[in-house]
Design brief:
The structure holds two protein chains of two kinds. In chain A, 5% of the residues lie in helices and 50% in strands. Chain A contains nine helices and 57 strands. The longest helix of chain A is centred in the N-terminal third of the chain and has 10 residues. By secondary structure, chain B is mainly alpha-helical. Chain B folds into two domains: 360 residues, Serine Threonine Protein Phosphatase 5, Tetratricopeptide repeat, CATH 1.25.40; 62 residues, no CATH class. Chain B contains 19 helices and six strands. Chain B has a two-stranded antiparallel sheet with strand order 1-3. In chain B, strands 2-6 form a two-stranded antiparallel ribbon. In chain B, helix 3 crosses helix 5 and helix 14 runs antiparallel to helix 15. The radius of gyration of chain B is 23 Å and the shape is globular. The chains are: A mainly beta, B mainly alpha.
Chain lengths: 964, 471
């Protein structure tokens, strides 16, 4: 049969041309892609069927029927049950999914000033709690899938980028992302076994389609500012307080508003250029991007250059080679925060710096340096932390893989996937010996760190798919190995020459250093069978066995099974007449996952370290120091067992879809660094020493509210409830975490309590007689001692929620994302420093209400120089951290076709986005979404503490996306 | 792949029994025995350096009438002002540092005798054990004086496994042993160690017979009731070893006479790479407000005695106007301790020296009624610093004279607080301390204030510990 030339045009429901839509002739490898103006041309048989697919839209089959001109309208995926979702090692039709997986809408990524994958998840998926613990550019987000499963073994989900597992996605260019799927329950994640107990986020990146090149250019520019200010004492008020505290006050000659000096305007820029296209046999997607995020507090800065090449080559009709390579170069400047002004950290430094000094001063020797607190030399003003050091981090990372697919038969396929994740890290820090106090202490100080980490992956899997009559079966089996090599070099230099032009260790008179190496290896066998009958009765069984080098030989192997089943009631004959219901499915699943991320490579061994001593004659080597951690031959996998039941309901031609899930997640053999009494000689033992439980409910509602020709309005709403608590602890009953200077630890871990429990004294207000805080005598022994401390709050929210609205009218569209958290407490440790009145730091204007005369009734105690009794870790600093935030709002305009053709463009969209426009909260600090201890090893438990944390900024951007 | 599942650490050595033995199970031969002992000493410079270069002086001098806490640490102010909570972070860390060092010594004392390596001679083997016993005894001596009854742990903790947990529970979570039993143990350890110990070593940083006898003398002078003849006999043993006073007092501190003939036990520091002494910059310098600021009372004591030699060597002044505030000390001549002077991390710390031992002997003589003998020693000590003999003939007056002489001679050497407690003088002396204008500072002490609380964190870990009264 003779092929005919088919010409067509593809648009969406609003009439916008769709470029880059893949058009394939069904049953062949032949295909093309639509041009920037939505047009395509293809040679096809008159009776051929065209398969059209495009990310975010329904896959559609269009029979040619001899036509040479075809107009096609693609529909949003929202309404489709045939949508394919990415699952581990494969894909599955959404209607056949029996587990708790969620596909995240990625359409708005290119319209928001987000640089990290995790930010794209925020507020979008029920049960996926994404928090931004710090607003510092490039700072990692915290992602919790259904609560924390671990205290210290890591709680971040595993990310799998185009089949390569990784724990850090910060270097991934968000504009390259095509799909994000979150595997929330054990039965969906079990295929990733030992690394999956915190859920798995599967990311695929964009790929080329055969056809003429489509070139995209995206850019935005924006500014960011602090969303809220905290008022501090003016010079007169400050000196009054100092006088009250017994300092010899002098009249200031200069004054400075430190908040204005520290919090400035940040700038956000992004440029991305991509080209995709290809022939029938080879397709490419090539992109390059430059992102620059200059924070609102200098020098915090994140510069990223990313290059990506995704290539698909059909080598033979039965053999395909897929390669994905991304190279990123990240240039980061850090800023010291999450600490107090006495430690020269910038955020509390801004609040605590005396307003009665200038920025620079000249010392007795004529050297210019940063001013210090006039009542406490050595406390440099915050500009010393900001401008003082010459510092920066540079990361070069290559992440990529090559996969060979061989189809032995139509049903039996083999895949060999080799992946590489390599990072080269470089950190340099130099502090001259003139400008700052720490620099003067060491007569110039410099430190340098280099590390390389290489993880290689080799996976070989066999896939068998077969359908007959109403039966469909899909089976997967495979072997994978992962190996990591890590090496690190640290050097520190002190005592530099007077001329600070040479800022390397080269010029240090005293140098110390060390190198470290480690390796780990993970070997796995995996298998899965998926069966469904008529898409009505569905069953999936998974099994994975993992062997890890990190554990003792008796406990090397962990076994992670799972099973899940679904019943699509809507497919039953008796539902045929219920037309309102487009889909109704019940799901249930059970499975086990492991968590091996938080185990150090040699965790079960007693490791000696070395203590250098002065060389002797003859030489005799260093001292050998006993281990800090006791060896533990019993150490084994932390295992999470999860049971999930869910329902999916879709009504009125999928105008309204609803999903609900309930789960119980139990972590056994909870890994803890159990503190041992000092007399044991060890600081701790890494031990499986407890149990943890999470249970929760998740609801997801999507609605197409209005669906007219020119106007469309959709709403997605999700809400999640999670409760967790420690159900058992062995060996030690009490743990403390999160220490802040001069005060008791804020967090405790005990049986029966949730993670993130605040512990301290109960403050009963200010005694009008003495002006001191009255602490509650909890144990009734007539005195207040540390044994009167008790539970005073909790960082766990009652629920978290997100709502996304999209409105489009002709060429205009408006979308906004609301996100919130309810019922969580925040421990505002920053207020210990801004309302503590125990030394010469400036304070917030709250202290204007301080007690000064007997009989005075107030909530702020008296000033007590050198005494923190009134500002102990107590309920005085526990606040309601509930908030509702307008996370993002975007107004965009697509230029009409008529205007575009004149410019030879296929698409031009301009948009304006406000990020973090407003936050409704009663929280007194900069921002309730904080976690000063996010980088703490035990960050499963150190939650909700504000301690001079860099707040998230309010950002406005203007952007442009164009294609031709 | 089997091999890859059994990866060994490339950057560390592991303990014995394939990495799962006791902490000291790597000690197998002469080299590891020496390396293990070296680590016991290394605690003085690195793992427990915060105790030896900072807290040691905060305890003895800032807690006593010699100095104010200084700096800005709430924990220090609590200690200085006798309102310590069991959650005090300095109290917790000092308990931890001392026990860490004790544990390293336990590993040596338990494992070195089992070594059969021919390269380790019997003499050296005994010497290694003796040195570890000295270091352990010295740490226990501080623990007992600070906390009273403390857990007495002398062996290594076996590897903790699910199977032996019940069995080792008492070892892991011991109760407090009476201070008296701790004294008995360390005294008998030291008595056996002294025979094996060397008379001299590469420098004064190693435990020798002199150091051990000094420690025995100090223990004997502290235990109640004091056996003064024993104190005298130990001090005589030290003196007989041939130590001599440096001719010029300031030479002890000028950096040019380290490991001198007067020094008996001196922590040697050689720079950052081997664990530098960062203590100097904690006490001396005008860049930020330092710890342990000499008190008006101490300055007055030197002035009233016209003791300008020791005054100049012990305290230095600087104008710090505009740098920080202080309620008690004048800013235009703000005092700093001056016995640590080197800021390049090589400052040595003299822990025991002959003058201390001589004064202890004077005390022993006086308590036994030999006031004249005591006076002779005081004359010797005072003579070096150009002070006239006191010629005291009355025992109780001599007692106070020795107390003052020890204060002026040994200020900022880790002695004062322990001297006051040992002689039962802490409460009256501290409650009488006045500021620069003669106004009482209002310290309030009870018998209970003389001991620190057991750290709350240790109490939380170990249910068998009982808190000291008053906390």
């Amino acid at each position: 049969q003779q092929d005919i030339t088919v010409k067509g045009h593809i648009q969406d429901k609003q009439g916008n041309s769709l470029p880059g839509v893949s058009i394939k002739i069904k049953g062949t490898a032949r295909g093309t892609a639509s041009q920037p103006d939505g047009n395509f041309t293809i040679q096809a048989a008159a009776d051929a069927v065209l398969e059209l697919s495009y990310v975010g839209y329904n896959t559609q089959e269009v029979p040619v029927n001899g036509r040479t001109q075809i107009a096609i309208t693609l529909e949003d995926t929202k309404t489709d049950l045939n949508e394919v979702v990415v699952i581990g090692y494969g894909t599955q039709k959404k209607r056949d999914v029996t587990t708790a997986v969620v596909s995240v809408n990625t359409k708005d990524i290119s319209e928001r000033p987000i640089t990290q994958t995790a930010a794209a998840l925020q507020g979008k998926a029920a049960g996926v709690q994404v928090t931004q613990p710090s607003g510092k550019p490039g700072a990692a987000f915290s992602v919790r899938v259904r609560g924390a499963t671990s205290v210290q073994a890591g709680n971040e989900p595993l990310y799998v980028i185009d089949g390569v597992p990784t724990t850090d996605t910060r270097d991934l260019n968000t504009n390259d992302i095509a799909t994000i799927t979150v595997l929330k329950d054990a039965s969906s994640a079990a295929i990733y076994g030992a690394r999956a107990s915190n859920g798995v986020v599967l990311i695929t990146t964009k790929r080329g389609r055969s056809g003429d090149a489509v070139i995209n250019f995206n850019t935005y520019y924006g500014i960011s500012k602090i969303g809220k200010k905290i008022d501090v004492l003016n010079p007169t008020q400050y000196n009054d307080l100092m006088k009250e505290m017994g300092f010899a006050v002098t009249t200031p000659t200069t004054t400075t508003n430190w908040l204005d000096e520290v919090f400035q305007t940040g700038h956000n820029q992004n440029y991305q250029l991509s080209a995709s296209g290809g022939s029938e046999k080879s397709q490419y997607f090539i992109s390059g991007a430059y992102t620059k995020d200059d924070g609102m507090v200098k020098p915090a800065r994140y510069n990223r250059r990313v290059f990506r090449a995704n290539l698909d080559n059909q080598l033979k009709p039965w053999m395909k080679l897929t390669t994905n390579i991304s190279y990123s170069n990240v240039d980061l400047k850090d800023l010291k925060d999450n600490d107090n002004a006495g430690r020269n950290a910038a955020i509390l430094g801004a609040l605590n710096a005396p307003p009665i000094i200038g920025i620079y001063e000249t010392d007795a020797d004529g050297h210019r340096r940063y001013t210090m607190n006039p009542y406490k030399s050595g406390w440099d003003n915050p500009l010393a932390a900001i401008e003082g050091p010459t510092q920066g981090t540079k990361d070069n990372r290559v992440l990529g893989n090559a996969a060979l697919d061989i189809n032995f038969t139509k049903d039996l396929k083999f895949r060999s996937n080799y992946g590489v994740d390599y990072t080269n890290h470089k950190y340099d820090y130099y502090l001259d010996y003139i400008m700052t106090t720490p620099g003067r202490n060491d007569h110039g100080y410099a430190t340098s760190q280099r590390y390389n980490t290489l993880t290689t992956l080799w996976e070989n899997t066999l896939n068998y798919d077969k359908s007959w009559k109403k039966h469909t079966i899909s089976a997967l089996g495979g072997v994978t190995t992962q190996k990591n090599n890590y090496d690190e070099t640290n050097q520190t230099g002190r005592d530099f020459p007077a001329d600070p032009t040479v800022k390397t260790l080269n010029a240090a008179n005293q140098i110390t250093g060390d190198t470290k190496e480690s390796q780990w290896f993970l070997m796995s066998y995996l298998g899965r069978v998926m069966y469904n009958y008529d898409s009505r009765y569905l069953l999936t069984v998974n099994f994975r066995a993992d062997g890890s080098s990190k554990l003792d030989k008796r406990h090397k192997w962990g076994y992670f099974p799972s099973v899940s089943a679904g019943w699509r009631i809507s497919a039953e004959p008796f539902m045929k007449d219920v037309t309102a219901v487009s889909d109704l499915k019940l799901r249930a699943g059970w499975g086990k996952n492991g968590n091996v991320e938080g185990l150090s490579p040699y965790a079960s061994l007693g490791l000696n370290s070395f203590a250098r001593q002065t060389p002797t004659s003859p030489l005799s080597g260093p001292g050998i120091t006993p281990p800090d951690g006791a060896p533990n031959p019993d150490l084994k996998w932390e295992t999470t067992t999860q049971t999930n039941v869910g329902i999916d309901l879709s009504l009125f031609d999928s105008r309204l879809t609803f999903s609900a899930d309930a789960y119980i997640k139990k972590t056994d053999d909870l890994l803890l660094n159990v503190p041992l009494p000092s007399n044991s000689g060890y600081k701790y033992i890494s031990r499986n020493s407890g149990k943890l439980e999470n249970k929760g409910l998740e609801f997801l509602l999507s609605s197409v509210n209005v669906d007219k020709k020119d106007f469309r309005w959709t709403t997605d709403f999700n809400i999640a409830f999670n409760r967790n608590r420690i159900t058992a602890l062995e060996l030690s009953d009490v743990y403390y975490y999160a220490s802040v200077e001069n005060r008791d630890n804020i967090i405790t871990l005990r049986k029966g309590l949730p993670l993130g429990t605040f512990y301290g004294y109960i403050s009963e207000g200010v005694d009008p007689k003495t002006g001191n805080i009255i602490y509650k005598d909890v144990n009734g022994d007539d005195k207040v001692t540390p044994t009167d401390r008790t539970v005073i709050g909790n960082a766990q929210p009652d629920f978290t929620y997100g709502m996304n609205n999209n409105l489009s009218y002709k060429n205009w569209s408006f979308s906004f994302l609301l996100q919130g958290s309810q019922g969580n407490d925040v421990f505002n440790a920053s207020r210990m420093e801004t309302e503590g009145m125990y030394d010469s730091k400036n304070q917030s204007t709250e202290v204007l209400r301080r007690w000064t005369t007997p009989g005075q009734v107030t909530d702020i105690p008296r000033a007590t120089n050198g005494d923190v009794t009134n500002s102990r870790t107590s309920s005085r600093f526990v606040e309601n951290g509930s908030f509702l935030r307008m996370k993002s709002a975007t107004l965009s305009y697509n230029l009409p076709q008529s205007a575009l053709s004149a410019m030879h463009l296929s698409r031009l969209m301009i948009y304006a986005t406000a990020q973090n426009l407003f936050t409704i909260t009663s929280y007194k600090g900069f921002d309730p979404e904080v976690n000063a201890f996010a980088s703490n090893a035990a960050n499963g438990v150190t939650l909700g503490i504000d301690y001079g944390t860099y707040p998230v900024a309010r950002t406005f951007i203007l952007g442009l996306n164009l294609s031709f | 792949c089997k091999k890859d599942l059994n990866l060994q650490p490339p950057s560390n050595t592991i303990v014995g029994n394939e990495g799962q033995g006791t902490a000291g199970s790597y000690i197998k031969d002469a080299a590891t025995s020496e390396a293990a002992l070296a680590s016991c000493y290394a605690f003085f410079r690195s793992n427990a350096a915060e105790y030896y270069v900072l807290d040691y002086f905060n305890i003895s001098d800032a807690q006593s009438d010699n100095a104010y806490a200084g700096a800005d640490n709430a924990a220090g102010f609590e200690i200085d002002e006798f309102r310590i909570l069991s959650t005090n972070s300095w109290v917790a860390r000092d308990w931890g540092y001392l026990y860490n060092q004790i544990s390293a010594c336990n590993s040596v004392i338990v494992n070195v005798p089992k070594v059969t390596d021919a390269a380790l001679t019997a003499t050296r083997k005994a010497q290694i054990v003796a040195e570890a016993q000295f270091i352990r005894a010295r740490a226990y001596f501080d623990l007992v004086r600070l906390f009273g009854d403390v857990p007495l742990v002398l062996t290594e903790l076996p590897t903790i496994t699910a199977d032996n947990l019940v069995e080792i529970y008492p070892l892991l979570y011991p109760s407090r042993t009476s201070a008296d039993s701790v004294y008995d143990q360390i005294t008998s350890d030291l008595k056996s160690a002294v025979d094996a110990a060397a008379v001299s070593a590469a420098n004064k940083g190693f435990a020798t017979k002199g150091a051990i006898y000094t420690l025995l003398a100090k223990i004997a002078a502290t235990r109640k009731p004091v056996n003064w003849p024993e104190v005298q006999s130990y001090t005589d043993q030290v003196i007989a070893l041939g130590y001599s006073l440096l001719p010029v007092y300031d030479q002890l501190w000028d950096g040019a006479h380290e490991n001198s003939a007067e020094a008996i036990f001196e922590l040697n520091f050689d720079g950052w790479d081997t664990g530098g002494n960062w203590g100097t910059s904690m006490f001396l310098g005008t860049d930020w407000k330092k710890f342990c600021n000499p008190s008006n009372d101490l300055i007055r004591a030197y002035q009233q005695e016209h003791d300008s030699v020791r005054f100049r060597s012990t305290i230095t002044f600087a104008n710090v106007t505009g740098k920080w505030g202080d309620a008690r000390l004048s800013l235009d001549s703000f005092p700093f301790f001056y016995k640590m002077r080197k800021t390049d991390a090589t400052q040595n710390i003299i822990m025991y020296r002959l003058a201390d031992v001589l004064l202890l002997k004077a005390e022993a003589l006086n308590e036994q009624g030999d006031v004249a003998g005591a006076n002779a020693i005081l004359t010797q000590i005072r003579g070096r610093v150009k002070l006239n003999p006191l010629n005291i003939t009355e025992q109780s007056a001599m007692r106070l004279a020795i107390e003052k002489e020890r204060r002026l001679e040994l200020a900022f050497e880790g002695q004062r607080w322990y001297d006051l407690v040992r002689t039962g003088r802490a409460i009256p002396v501290m409650e009488a301390v006045t500021d620069g204008k003669g106004v009482n500072l209002g310290y309030h002490l009870t018998e209970q204030s003389l001991l620190w609380p057991v750290p709350q964190a240790e109490m939380d870990q170990n249910a068998n510990l009982v808190q000291n009264p008053g906390y």
